[in-house]
TrEMBL record:
Residues 208-451 form the Pyruvate flavodoxin/ferredoxin oxidoreductase pyrimidine binding domain. It is an enzyme of class 1 (oxidoreductase). It comes from Natronobacterium gregoryi (strain ATCC 43098 / DSM 3393 / CCM 3738 / CIP 104747 / IAM 13177 / JCM 8860 / NBRC 102187 / NCIMB 2189 / SP2). Keywords: Oxidoreductase, Pyruvate. Gene3D superfamilies: 3.40.50.920, 3.40.50.970, Pyruvate-ferredoxin oxidoreductase, PFOR, domain III. Residues 413-456 are annotated as: Disordered. NCBIfam families: OAFO_sf. InterPro entries: 2-oxoacid/accept_OxRdtase_asu, Pyruvate:ferred/Flavod_OxRd, Pyrv/ketoisovalerate_OxRed_cat, Pyrv_Fd/Flavodoxin_OxRdtase_N, Pyrv_flavodox_OxRed_cen, THDP-binding, Transketo_C/PFOR_II. Its EC number is 1.2.7.3. This is 2-oxoglutarate synthase subunit KorA. Residues 431-456 have a biased composition (Basic and acidic residues). It catalyses: 2 oxidized [2Fe-2S]-[ferredoxin] + 2-oxoglutarate + CoA = succinyl-CoA + 2 reduced [2Fe-2S]-[ferredoxin] + CO2 + H(+). GO terms for biological process: organic acid metabolic process; response to oxidative stress; sulfur compound biosynthetic process.
């Protein structure tokens, strides 16, 4: 792999940290460099430390690491928060004219740039971060002109003068460092002619929903799921769809349920306490056999927990949430590009089997921006399967000409007729019902309907491919298994591990691939996940009847590749847990 560069900017909320990082990430992407970002922001409405980190290389990067080469520090806390990642050869850009004296660690180059004064000369102090970007370009050998297109995209709506002032601010920042410092840290960011798409996990889910034909979205703002709704707003309308901001999460899922009953491909998304509120409707979705995609972007809990921090603690909720027994599917994308493809698959599964499908992501994946070749999202590869959606209902009528919307079938899937279908009128309620949807307490009909609904899952197990992705040495005796967003860090961790390791990354929790043989054949098995109790490890031990070793992280911070490599090496030397 070519040498990568790790850059970050940090300060207080309101300092424009996110927009500055986004501008630089877009510029690097347009220069043909791969990008992987990470964000840190406080769980409060206003104020608090916030940071935006970028790792960039001409090779693909899939994780953050414990190294920081260039830091733009708008506050002393920014330096304090990142001091352990700074090293000999790092540079800290700061504004010495401000009312704080930067405490630069020994061995780190301090680059004092009067950001505010230079910005004022360019047209306004608000552009001080753009000045810092220009300074970073000079230190890293990155052509400042690559910033221009990003600045145009960010500020184009505010008029050409604002755009030109920002371009000038960046160049003044570059010139100041060039004229006042002899900084040669050995960085010279290579550019290529490659063209990349830069997007985060929530954008990929929104894009996947549109590609899948989603035409209705209802949601209530909640961190970190809100940006799915923001992405769809203004885009879904171009395809005849609608976004509704509901008054709460319970209203949102019921609106989405209503839209799905009308025949529209429908979705809602939430996180944390929002998924708790939606639980009341899970059973109605399943009992009425309505296809619906429910996205849970996990965050640290329980209760309010840490709303802006990483965790994978909702697995049991997705598997078992809701009273009674609710047939469902649980799909867990393992990467940002998989967020796109698994969203499409979730819509297909929902309609083919007329069940709720839980699409489970997490905060780390939702806010991380990563580069991909455009062909990664080739729309020609998108397939839509609406299952047993029928136009003609003749074969599904009873002797009195009534449509059997809940007809008992061998595969468990009944015909589906949307409002307006000739002779397709029917009812569906949350009460147990017969084939016509009429309420019943008849024991035999109850058993038939329960078995029918559960049979859909068994059918899906046979018809669909519940596969997994694998990396590393496929013949290795050491096996590491993960689910969700840990895949990137785990893949890169292989570069730091001396032992041969096979990695399996699982994108389906229910149904899930049977890994019993793989687990049984391995000398060492380690399960990696971001929660305290090892919810996925419990499932695998249940499936394989074998104890596994566990790496659990629940600090609120995602796994890093080098950190994970160290933990895996330590686990490989430990004794296997007692049976």
């Amino acid at each position: 792999m070519a040498e990568d560069l790790n850059w970050a900017i940090g300060g207080e909320a309101g300092d424009g940290i996110d927009s500055t990082g986004k501008i630089f990430a877009q510029a690097l992407s347009r220069a043909g460099r791969h990008v992987f970002t990470s964000k840190d922001f406080a769980s409060r409405i206003r104020g608090g430390y916030t940071a935006y980190k970028i790792r960039t290389s001409v090779d693909q990067v899939q994780s953050v690491v414990d190294r920081l080469d260039i830091l733009v520090a708008l506050t002393q806390r920014t330096i304090d928060e990142n001091v352990d990642e700074l090293h000999d050869g790092s540079a800290v850009i700061y504004d010495g004219e401000r009312s704080w004296d930067a405490d630069i660690p020994e061995g780190v180059t301090g680059v004092d740039v009067p950001l505010k004064s230079i910005a004022e000369d360019a047209g306004g102090s608000i552009m001080r971060n753009t000045v810092a970007l220009g300074a970073a370009c000079e230190i890293t050998g990155f052509d400042v002109e690559y910033l221009d297109e990003s600045l145009e995209k960010r500020f184009g709506g505010k008029g050409s003068k604002i755009v030109e002032n920002n371009k000038e601010a960046a160049r003044k920042g570059q010139e100041y460092v060039r004229e006042n410092y002899d900084v040669d840290l050995g960085y010279n960011l290579e550019t290529t002619d490659e063209d990349y798409v830069l997007l985060n996990g929530n954008e990929a889910i929104g894009m996947g929903a549109l590609a899948a034909g989603c035409r209705f979205y209802a949601g209530y703002p909640i961190t970190p799921a809100t940006s799915i709704m923001e992405y769809l707003t203004g885009r879904i309308e171009d395809y005849g769809g609608h976004v509704v901001q509901a008054e709460d999460e319970l209203s949102a899922i019921n609106m989405a349920l209503g839209a799905a009953r009308s025949g529209a491909r429908s979705m809602t998304a939430t996180s944390g306490a929002g998924i708790d509120l939606m639980t009341e409707t899970f059973g109605l979705v399943a009992q009425s056999e309505t296809p619906l995609v429910i996205t849970d972007v996990q965050r640290s809990g329980p209760s309010t927990g840490m709303p802006t921090k990483q965790e994978q603690g909702d697995l049991n909720m997705a598997l078992y949430g809701g009273h009674g027994e609710v047939p469902r599917f649980v799909v867990t994308p393992t990467s940002i590009d998989e967020c796109f493809w698994k969203t499409i698959e979730a819509f297909n599964l929902a309609e083919k089997y007329q069940t709720p499908v839980f699409l489970v992501s997490d905060l780390a994946m939702s806010v991380t921006e990563q580069t991909f070749p455009p062909e990664t999202f080739d729309m020609d590869d998108v397939e839509i399967d609406r299952g047993k959606l029928v136009d003609e209902v003749d074969e599904w009528l009873d002797a009195k000409g009534r449509f059997r919307a809940h007809a008992v079938t061998d595969d468990g899937v009944s015909p589906r007729a949307i409002p307006g279908t000739t002779d397709g009128a029917h009812m569906s309620t949350g009460l147990e019902h017969d084939e016509l949807g009429r309420r019943t307490e008849d024991p035999d009909e109850r058993v038939q309907q329960v078995d029918k609904r559960n049979r859909k899952v068994e059918t899906a197990k046979e018809r669909e491919e519940w596969d997994y992705r694998e990396f590393g040495d496929l013949e290795a005796d050491n096996l590491v298994i993960s689910w969700g967003s840990n895949e990137g860090a785990l893949t890169e961790a292989l570069d730091y591990i001396d032992e041969n390791v096979r990695v399996i990354s699982v994108p389906y929790i229910f149904p899930r691939p049977d890994l019993s043989d793989e687990i049984g054949a391995a000398d060492e098995v380690i399960v990696v996940e971001c929660n305290a109790t090892g919810q996925f490890a419990d499932l695998l031990e249940h499936d394989a009847l074998t104890r596994v070793k566990r790496i659990n992280k629940y600090t609120g911070v995602r796994f890093k590749a080098d950190e994970l490599a160290e933990q895996i090496s330590e686990k490989l030397s430990e004794e296997v847990p007692a049976q």
